[in-house]
Amino acid sequence: MISNPEFDITTHSALQAMFDAPAGASLAKELDHIDDNYRQWIAASPFLALATAGPQGLDCSPRGDPAGFVDVVDAKTVIIPERRGNNRIDSLRNLIENPQLALLFLIPGQGETLRINGRARISADPALLQRYAIAGKLPKLVLIVTVEAAFFQCSRAVVRAGLWNPAAQIKPGSLPTPGQILSAATNAGIDGAAYDQALPERVKSSLY
Asked: How far apart are CA 121 and CA 184, in angstroms?
């Protein structure tokens, strides 16, 4: 037994009793739109995590491009290009069934993160795809997100993690490689060494 079920928190009242009331700033920072300050944060971010939920379960997957890749169309709308990936399309399948999503933006060197909750439409509009082309390569799709809430998250988690501290970076070769993981998961059905050898060039040639 990992823990005694007697101590499980199972009610809202029991949960709230474990925490102080949120400070005024924690509530005041939440907007139902993107103001000029949050617009600047989005423009500085090269990376976000996209969280979705659907009948098949939950998904949280990364999205990244040069800073400013998320286009703030207006105070209630952002557009995210959907670039080439692993073709699992777990998040997109979820959005077909449930348009609700959450975004977490990271900005290198910045402790605070930006959170956006909203709803998305998946579009293959040729004019939109052309707008977000990079090096002549079009995104597969775009997500048109209607913003319902936008707020910054305090820096504590990033500070505790030492996320931007160069001394905290993991040295290459200190973790199992993708090829080693695939080889173990498939009982050597996938040649892990060959996979690792081909991976850098495959990533470089298929970014877009």
From this structure: 38
Q: Pick from 80, 79, 86, 47: which is nearest to 66 by CA?
A: 47
Q: Give the model confidence (pLDDT) of 127-143 as tens digits.
A: 999 999 999 999 999 99
Mean pLDDT for the stretch of residues 16-20: 94
Contact 157/104 with Cβ under 8 angstroms? no
Predicted local distance difference test score (pLDDT) of residue 26: 87
**Judgement on whether residues 154 and 201 belong to the same structural domain of the protein:** no
Take residue 100 and report the two structure tokens written for it. Answer: 């609700």
Tell whether the model's pLDDT for residue 94 goes beyond 90: yes
Residue 101 placed within a domain? yes
Count the domains in the chain. 2
Q: Give the bridge partners for 123, in sequence order.
A: 142
57 and 76 belong to one structural domain? yes
Is pTM beyond 0.70? Reply is yes
